[in-house]
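Deliverable D4.2, example record:
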Amino acid sequence: MRLVAAVACAATLLCLGVLPGQAEKRVALVIGNSSYQRVTALPNPAHDAAAMGDLFRRVGFDVVEVKTNLDQATMRKVLRDFSAAVRDADVAVVFYAGHGMEMNGTNYLIPTDAVLDRDIDVEDETVSLDRVSQIIEPARRLRLIILDACRDNPFASGMHRTIASRSVGRGLARVDITTADSMIAFAAKPGSTAADGRDVDSPYTAALLKHLPTPGLDLRLAMGRVRDEVLASTDRKQEPIVFTSLGGAEISLVPGPSGPAARAPTDPAAQAWAVTQDTTSAAVLEDFIHQFGGTPYASMARARLAKVGTIKISGDWFDAQISSSKIHVSQNGNEFSFTGNAVAESGSLIGVGFNVFGKGHIAGNSLDTNWSAKFDNGLSVVGHCSGVSRKDGVIAWRCKDSKAVESSPVWIRE
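Output generated by the structure prediction step:
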Protein backbone atom coordinates (compact mmCIF):
# COMPACT_ATOMS: atom_id res chain seq x y z
CA MET A 1 0.00 0.00 0.00
CA ARG A 2 1.03 3.53 -0.61
CA LEU A 3 -0.46 4.58 2.74
CA VAL A 4 2.78 4.80 4.72
CA ALA A 5 4.70 6.65 2.03
CA ALA A 6 1.75 8.90 1.35
CA VAL A 7 1.34 9.89 4.97
CA ALA A 8 5.08 10.43 5.22
CA CYS A 9 4.76 12.85 2.33
CA ALA A 10 1.91 14.63 4.07
CA ALA A 11 3.94 14.91 7.25
CA THR A 12 7.08 16.24 5.60
CA LEU A 13 5.52 18.18 2.67
CA LEU A 14 7.04 16.78 -0.53
CA CYS A 15 9.78 18.83 -2.15
CA LEU A 16 9.26 18.66 -5.92
CA GLY A 17 11.76 19.80 -8.55
CA VAL A 18 10.39 22.63 -10.70
CA LEU A 19 11.74 24.06 -13.90
CA PRO A 20 12.43 27.79 -14.03
CA GLY A 21 9.24 29.84 -14.28
CA GLN A 22 8.17 31.24 -17.62
CA ALA A 23 7.35 34.86 -18.33
CA GLU A 24 3.67 34.05 -18.74
CA LYS A 25 1.57 32.94 -15.81
CA ARG A 26 0.31 29.35 -16.04
CA VAL A 27 -2.17 27.84 -13.58
CA ALA A 28 -3.70 24.37 -13.25
CA LEU A 29 -6.48 22.79 -11.22
CA VAL A 30 -6.39 18.99 -11.02
CA ILE A 31 -9.30 16.97 -9.59
CA GLY A 32 -9.51 13.20 -9.15
CA ASN A 33 -12.65 11.59 -7.73
CA SER A 34 -12.19 7.94 -6.77
CA SER A 35 -14.08 7.25 -3.54
CA TYR A 36 -17.73 7.50 -4.54
CA GLN A 37 -20.15 6.94 -1.67
CA ARG A 38 -23.08 5.42 -3.59
CA VAL A 39 -21.34 3.47 -6.35
CA THR A 40 -18.21 1.33 -6.67
CA ALA A 41 -14.98 3.25 -6.17
CA LEU A 42 -12.77 3.99 -9.18
CA PRO A 43 -9.17 2.83 -8.61
CA ASN A 44 -7.34 5.29 -10.86
CA PRO A 45 -8.66 8.90 -10.76
CA ALA A 46 -7.00 9.95 -7.49
CA HIS A 47 -3.69 8.56 -8.72
CA ASP A 48 -4.18 10.10 -12.16
CA ALA A 49 -4.69 13.47 -10.47
CA ALA A 50 -1.50 13.10 -8.43
CA ALA A 51 0.52 12.21 -11.53
CA MET A 52 -0.93 15.09 -13.58
CA GLY A 53 -0.32 17.53 -10.75
CA ASP A 54 3.27 16.35 -10.58
CA LEU A 55 3.58 16.91 -14.34
CA PHE A 56 2.33 20.51 -14.16
CA ARG A 57 4.70 21.27 -11.29
CA ARG A 58 7.68 19.77 -13.12
CA VAL A 59 7.09 21.86 -16.24
CA GLY A 60 6.99 25.07 -14.21
CA PHE A 61 3.32 26.02 -13.76
CA ASP A 62 3.00 28.91 -11.30
CA VAL A 63 -0.07 27.53 -9.52
CA VAL A 64 -0.97 23.84 -9.28
CA GLU A 65 -3.91 22.82 -7.12
CA VAL A 66 -4.48 19.06 -6.74
CA LYS A 67 -7.74 17.99 -5.08
CA THR A 68 -9.15 14.49 -4.67
CA ASN A 69 -12.45 12.92 -3.65
CA LEU A 70 -14.47 16.12 -3.57
CA ASP A 71 -18.08 16.24 -2.51
CA GLN A 72 -20.44 18.64 -4.27
CA ALA A 73 -20.01 21.60 -1.91
CA THR A 74 -16.21 21.28 -1.83
CA MET A 75 -15.97 20.86 -5.58
CA ARG A 76 -17.90 24.07 -6.20
CA LYS A 77 -15.76 25.93 -3.63
CA VAL A 78 -12.52 24.64 -5.18
CA LEU A 79 -13.61 25.97 -8.57
CA ARG A 80 -14.56 29.35 -7.10
CA ASP A 81 -11.20 29.61 -5.32
CA PHE A 82 -9.34 28.68 -8.52
CA SER A 83 -11.02 31.55 -10.35
CA ALA A 84 -8.85 33.97 -8.36
CA ALA A 85 -5.69 32.37 -9.80
CA VAL A 86 -7.14 32.45 -13.33
CA ARG A 87 -7.96 36.15 -13.20
CA ASP A 88 -4.47 37.31 -14.30
CA ALA A 89 -3.27 34.06 -15.92
CA ASP A 90 -2.14 33.56 -19.50
CA VAL A 91 -2.74 29.80 -19.49
CA ALA A 92 -5.39 28.02 -17.41
CA VAL A 93 -5.83 24.24 -17.32
CA VAL A 94 -8.42 22.09 -15.56
CA PHE A 95 -7.92 18.31 -15.48
CA TYR A 96 -10.70 16.12 -14.12
CA ALA A 97 -10.72 12.34 -13.64
CA GLY A 98 -13.75 10.56 -12.25
CA HIS A 99 -17.36 9.94 -13.19
CA GLY A 100 -19.13 12.25 -15.62
CA MET A 101 -22.42 12.15 -17.51
CA GLU A 102 -24.51 13.95 -20.08
CA MET A 103 -28.19 14.79 -19.90
CA ASN A 104 -30.09 16.50 -22.70
CA GLY A 105 -26.80 17.38 -24.39
CA THR A 106 -25.22 19.03 -21.32
CA ASN A 107 -22.17 17.48 -19.65
CA TYR A 108 -21.76 17.19 -15.89
CA LEU A 109 -18.91 16.18 -13.54
CA ILE A 110 -20.06 14.00 -10.64
CA PRO A 111 -18.86 14.68 -7.06
CA THR A 112 -18.27 11.78 -4.68
CA ASP A 113 -21.42 12.36 -2.59
CA ALA A 114 -23.86 12.40 -5.53
CA VAL A 115 -27.00 10.30 -5.12
CA LEU A 116 -28.78 11.11 -8.41
CA ASP A 117 -31.95 9.26 -7.50
CA ARG A 118 -33.93 11.32 -10.07
CA ASP A 119 -33.01 13.04 -13.31
CA ILE A 120 -34.18 16.33 -11.81
CA ASP A 121 -31.40 16.04 -9.19
CA VAL A 122 -28.55 16.23 -11.71
CA GLU A 123 -28.19 20.02 -11.80
CA ASP A 124 -28.28 20.21 -7.98
CA GLU A 125 -25.83 17.38 -7.21
CA THR A 126 -23.23 17.77 -9.98
CA VAL A 127 -21.05 20.47 -11.56
CA SER A 128 -21.66 21.32 -15.19
CA LEU A 129 -18.86 21.50 -17.73
CA ASP A 130 -20.23 24.93 -18.67
CA ARG A 131 -19.42 26.11 -15.13
CA VAL A 132 -15.82 24.91 -15.47
CA SER A 133 -15.49 26.73 -18.79
CA GLN A 134 -16.83 29.89 -17.19
CA ILE A 135 -14.24 29.68 -14.40
CA ILE A 136 -11.24 29.65 -16.78
CA GLU A 137 -12.62 32.14 -19.31
CA PRO A 138 -10.47 35.09 -18.06
CA ALA A 139 -7.21 33.36 -19.13
CA ARG A 140 -5.60 35.41 -21.89
CA ARG A 141 -3.76 32.90 -24.10
CA LEU A 142 -5.09 29.36 -23.55
CA ARG A 143 -8.08 27.80 -21.82
CA LEU A 144 -7.71 24.02 -21.62
CA ILE A 145 -10.07 21.46 -20.03
CA ILE A 146 -9.08 17.78 -20.03
CA LEU A 147 -11.73 15.25 -18.99
CA ASP A 148 -10.89 11.64 -18.21
CA ALA A 149 -14.55 11.27 -17.27
CA CYS A 150 -16.18 9.22 -20.02
CA ARG A 151 -16.44 6.05 -17.94
CA ASP A 152 -19.70 4.12 -18.02
CA ASN A 153 -22.18 6.01 -15.82
CA PRO A 154 -23.22 3.75 -12.88
CA PHE A 155 -25.90 6.21 -11.76
CA ALA A 156 -27.94 5.99 -14.95
CA SER A 157 -29.49 2.55 -14.43
CA GLY A 158 -31.08 3.43 -11.09
CA MET A 159 -32.09 6.99 -11.95
CA HIS A 160 -35.84 7.66 -11.97
CA ARG A 161 -37.09 9.71 -14.93
CA THR A 162 -39.50 12.50 -14.02
CA ILE A 163 -39.93 13.55 -17.67
CA ALA A 164 -40.01 10.84 -20.33
CA SER A 165 -38.33 13.03 -22.94
CA ARG A 166 -35.32 13.80 -20.73
CA SER A 167 -32.43 11.71 -22.05
CA VAL A 168 -29.37 10.48 -20.16
CA GLY A 169 -26.77 9.43 -22.71
CA ARG A 170 -23.78 7.11 -22.72
CA GLY A 171 -20.47 8.86 -22.12
CA LEU A 172 -20.31 12.62 -22.71
CA ALA A 173 -21.95 14.81 -25.35
CA ARG A 174 -20.07 16.84 -27.97
CA VAL A 175 -19.47 20.49 -27.07
CA ASP A 176 -19.61 23.71 -29.05
CA ILE A 177 -16.86 26.12 -28.01
CA THR A 178 -17.83 29.78 -28.21
CA THR A 179 -14.73 31.30 -26.55
CA ALA A 180 -11.57 31.88 -28.59
CA ASP A 181 -8.25 30.13 -27.80
CA SER A 182 -9.92 27.24 -25.99
CA MET A 183 -9.65 23.46 -26.09
CA ILE A 184 -11.76 20.78 -24.41
CA ALA A 185 -10.37 17.24 -24.56
CA PHE A 186 -12.33 14.04 -23.85
CA ALA A 187 -10.84 10.64 -23.08
CA ALA A 188 -13.36 9.11 -25.49
CA LYS A 189 -15.47 10.43 -28.34
CA PRO A 190 -19.07 11.49 -27.60
CA GLY A 191 -21.46 8.65 -26.90
CA SER A 192 -18.71 6.19 -26.00
CA THR A 193 -16.97 5.26 -22.76
CA ALA A 194 -13.37 5.24 -21.58
CA ALA A 195 -11.50 2.52 -19.71
CA ASP A 196 -10.29 3.08 -16.15
CA GLY A 197 -7.40 0.78 -17.00
CA ARG A 198 -5.66 -2.09 -15.24
CA ASP A 199 -2.41 -0.21 -14.71
CA VAL A 200 -1.64 2.55 -12.23
CA ASP A 201 -2.95 5.21 -14.64
CA SER A 202 -5.84 5.09 -17.09
CA PRO A 203 -4.79 4.64 -20.76
CA TYR A 204 -5.71 8.28 -21.45
CA THR A 205 -3.80 9.77 -18.52
CA ALA A 206 -0.78 7.58 -19.26
CA ALA A 207 -0.68 8.99 -22.79
CA LEU A 208 -1.08 12.56 -21.52
CA LEU A 209 1.84 12.08 -19.12
CA LYS A 210 3.99 10.92 -22.02
CA HIS A 211 3.18 13.55 -24.65
CA LEU A 212 2.09 16.80 -22.96
CA PRO A 213 5.55 17.53 -21.43
CA THR A 214 7.31 17.40 -24.82
CA PRO A 215 9.11 20.77 -25.12
CA GLY A 216 7.89 22.90 -28.00
CA LEU A 217 5.26 20.37 -29.18
CA ASP A 218 2.10 22.16 -30.29
CA LEU A 219 -0.85 21.22 -28.12
CA ARG A 220 -2.90 20.00 -31.09
CA LEU A 221 -0.09 17.66 -32.16
CA ALA A 222 0.36 16.45 -28.56
CA MET A 223 -3.33 15.60 -28.32
CA GLY A 224 -3.12 13.87 -31.69
CA ARG A 225 -0.32 11.67 -30.38
CA VAL A 226 -2.37 10.98 -27.24
CA ARG A 227 -5.26 9.85 -29.46
CA ASP A 228 -3.02 7.54 -31.50
CA GLU A 229 -1.49 5.96 -28.40
CA VAL A 230 -4.83 5.36 -26.66
CA LEU A 231 -6.27 3.80 -29.82
CA ALA A 232 -3.28 1.47 -29.99
CA SER A 233 -3.27 0.56 -26.28
CA THR A 234 -7.01 -0.22 -26.22
CA ASP A 235 -7.13 -2.21 -29.48
CA ARG A 236 -8.99 0.74 -31.06
CA LYS A 237 -11.83 0.47 -28.54
CA GLN A 238 -11.29 3.97 -27.12
CA GLU A 239 -10.72 7.08 -29.23
CA PRO A 240 -10.01 10.41 -27.49
CA ILE A 241 -11.29 13.59 -29.13
CA VAL A 242 -10.72 17.34 -28.83
CA PHE A 243 -12.95 20.34 -29.48
CA THR A 244 -10.99 23.52 -30.11
CA SER A 245 -11.14 27.15 -31.13
CA LEU A 246 -7.36 27.64 -31.20
CA GLY A 247 -6.02 29.92 -33.92
CA GLY A 248 -3.08 29.52 -36.29
CA ALA A 249 -0.30 30.27 -33.80
CA GLU A 250 1.55 27.33 -32.23
CA ILE A 251 1.04 26.83 -28.50
CA SER A 252 2.64 24.23 -26.23
CA LEU A 253 2.40 23.56 -22.52
CA VAL A 254 6.20 23.35 -22.31
CA PRO A 255 8.05 26.02 -24.32
CA GLY A 256 10.77 24.68 -26.59
CA PRO A 257 14.38 25.91 -26.80
CA SER A 258 15.17 29.11 -28.70
CA GLY A 259 18.16 30.25 -30.71
CA PRO A 260 20.86 27.80 -31.86
CA ALA A 261 19.69 25.18 -29.35
CA ALA A 262 16.36 24.99 -31.14
CA ARG A 263 18.07 23.88 -34.34
CA ALA A 264 20.37 21.35 -32.69
CA PRO A 265 19.38 17.66 -32.67
CA THR A 266 17.71 16.61 -29.41
CA ASP A 267 17.62 13.31 -27.56
CA PRO A 268 14.02 12.42 -26.57
CA ALA A 269 15.25 10.42 -23.56
CA ALA A 270 17.36 13.38 -22.38
CA GLN A 271 14.44 15.75 -22.80
CA ALA A 272 12.13 13.45 -20.88
CA TRP A 273 14.67 12.88 -18.10
CA ALA A 274 15.14 16.63 -17.67
CA VAL A 275 11.54 16.95 -16.48
CA THR A 276 11.41 13.56 -14.69
CA GLN A 277 14.61 13.31 -12.66
CA ASP A 278 13.26 15.07 -9.57
CA THR A 279 9.83 13.46 -9.47
CA THR A 280 8.61 11.60 -6.39
CA SER A 281 5.96 9.70 -8.37
CA ALA A 282 6.79 6.02 -8.84
CA ALA A 283 4.24 5.85 -11.66
CA VAL A 284 6.05 8.55 -13.65
CA LEU A 285 9.39 6.79 -13.18
CA GLU A 286 7.93 3.41 -14.16
CA ASP A 287 6.49 4.96 -17.32
CA PHE A 288 9.88 6.53 -18.14
CA ILE A 289 11.62 3.16 -17.75
CA HIS A 290 9.02 1.55 -19.99
CA GLN A 291 9.51 4.18 -22.70
CA PHE A 292 13.30 4.60 -22.51
CA GLY A 293 14.48 1.30 -21.01
CA GLY A 294 17.27 0.94 -23.57
CA THR A 295 18.94 4.29 -22.79
CA PRO A 296 21.50 5.25 -20.11
CA TYR A 297 18.83 7.37 -18.44
CA ALA A 298 16.82 4.25 -17.55
CA SER A 299 19.43 3.18 -14.97
CA MET A 300 19.15 6.58 -13.30
CA ALA A 301 15.37 6.24 -13.34
CA ARG A 302 15.61 2.81 -11.70
CA ALA A 303 17.86 4.21 -8.99
CA ARG A 304 15.42 7.06 -8.43
CA LEU A 305 12.53 4.59 -8.30
CA ALA A 306 14.31 2.58 -5.59
CA LYS A 307 14.43 5.70 -3.43
CA VAL A 308 10.73 6.39 -3.82
CA GLY A 309 10.06 3.32 -1.71
CA THR A 310 7.74 0.38 -1.32
CA ILE A 311 5.37 -0.58 1.46
CA LYS A 312 5.43 -3.87 3.30
CA ILE A 313 2.22 -4.82 5.08
CA SER A 314 2.32 -7.79 7.46
CA GLY A 315 -0.90 -8.99 9.07
CA ASP A 316 -2.76 -12.07 10.25
CA TRP A 317 -4.68 -12.52 6.98
CA PHE A 318 -2.31 -11.46 4.22
CA ASP A 319 0.98 -9.79 3.25
CA ALA A 320 1.46 -7.22 0.51
CA GLN A 321 4.43 -5.29 -0.83
CA ILE A 322 3.75 -2.79 -3.59
CA SER A 323 4.88 0.55 -4.99
CA SER A 324 4.26 3.64 -2.89
CA SER A 325 2.51 5.12 -5.94
CA LYS A 326 -0.59 3.02 -5.35
CA ILE A 327 -2.11 5.19 -2.63
CA HIS A 328 -2.67 8.92 -2.89
CA VAL A 329 -2.90 11.30 0.06
CA SER A 330 -4.41 14.76 0.37
CA GLN A 331 -3.55 17.09 3.25
CA ASN A 332 -5.36 20.08 4.74
CA GLY A 333 -3.40 21.47 7.68
CA ASN A 334 -2.95 18.65 10.19
CA GLU A 335 -5.72 16.57 8.65
CA PHE A 336 -5.15 14.12 5.82
CA SER A 337 -7.14 11.62 3.77
CA PHE A 338 -6.04 8.81 1.49
CA THR A 339 -7.33 6.34 -1.08
CA GLY A 340 -5.82 3.61 -3.21
CA ASN A 341 -5.77 -0.04 -4.23
CA ALA A 342 -3.55 -3.10 -3.86
CA VAL A 343 -3.48 -6.90 -4.14
CA ALA A 344 -2.77 -9.32 -1.28
CA GLU A 345 0.40 -11.28 -2.03
CA SER A 346 0.15 -14.07 0.56
CA GLY A 347 -2.02 -15.48 3.32
CA SER A 348 -5.64 -16.56 3.08
CA LEU A 349 -6.48 -13.62 0.80
CA ILE A 350 -3.61 -14.11 -1.67
CA GLY A 351 -4.37 -12.67 -5.10
CA VAL A 352 -7.43 -10.75 -3.91
CA GLY A 353 -7.48 -7.06 -4.78
CA PHE A 354 -8.78 -4.42 -2.40
CA ASN A 355 -9.47 -0.66 -2.16
CA VAL A 356 -8.44 1.21 0.96
CA PHE A 357 -9.41 4.69 2.11
CA GLY A 358 -9.48 6.67 5.34
CA LYS A 359 -8.76 9.87 7.23
CA GLY A 360 -6.22 10.84 9.85
CA HIS A 361 -4.51 13.49 11.97
CA ILE A 362 -0.87 14.59 12.32
CA ALA A 363 0.53 15.82 15.65
CA GLY A 364 4.28 16.44 15.66
CA ASN A 365 5.94 13.18 14.60
CA SER A 366 2.87 11.11 15.45
CA LEU A 367 0.10 10.13 13.08
CA ASP A 368 -3.29 8.64 13.77
CA THR A 369 -5.76 7.23 11.22
CA ASN A 370 -9.01 5.33 10.85
CA TRP A 371 -9.24 3.29 7.67
CA SER A 372 -11.43 0.81 5.83
CA ALA A 373 -10.68 -1.68 3.10
CA LYS A 374 -13.04 -3.44 0.71
CA PHE A 375 -11.81 -6.62 -0.96
CA ASP A 376 -12.88 -7.80 -4.39
CA ASN A 377 -14.37 -10.93 -2.81
CA GLY A 378 -16.85 -8.80 -0.86
CA LEU A 379 -15.02 -8.76 2.48
CA SER A 380 -14.89 -5.38 4.24
CA VAL A 381 -12.43 -4.52 7.02
CA VAL A 382 -12.16 -1.41 9.16
CA GLY A 383 -9.37 -0.51 11.53
CA HIS A 384 -7.34 2.07 13.44
CA CYS A 385 -3.61 2.77 13.16
CA SER A 386 -1.13 4.95 14.99
CA GLY A 387 2.29 5.75 13.62
CA VAL A 388 5.54 7.40 14.73
CA SER A 389 7.99 8.99 12.29
CA ARG A 390 11.54 7.81 13.05
CA LYS A 391 14.67 9.89 12.52
CA ASP A 392 15.49 7.95 9.34
CA GLY A 393 12.22 9.13 7.76
CA VAL A 394 10.47 5.76 8.10
CA ILE A 395 7.05 5.68 9.72
CA ALA A 396 6.44 2.61 11.88
CA TRP A 397 2.73 1.79 12.08
CA ARG A 398 0.84 -0.32 14.58
CA CYS A 399 -2.69 -1.16 13.55
CA LYS A 400 -5.45 -2.93 15.43
CA ASP A 401 -8.27 -4.35 13.34
CA SER A 402 -11.63 -3.46 14.85
CA LYS A 403 -12.83 -6.99 14.01
CA ALA A 404 -10.53 -8.37 16.72
CA VAL A 405 -7.69 -10.10 14.89
CA GLU A 406 -5.29 -12.23 16.95
CA SER A 407 -2.46 -9.68 16.93
CA SER A 408 -1.74 -6.17 15.72
CA PRO A 409 -0.18 -5.88 12.26
CA VAL A 410 2.83 -3.64 11.74
CA TRP A 411 3.16 -1.59 8.54
CA ILE A 412 6.66 -0.34 7.74
CA ARG A 413 7.94 1.70 4.82
CA GLU A 414 11.21 0.14 3.70
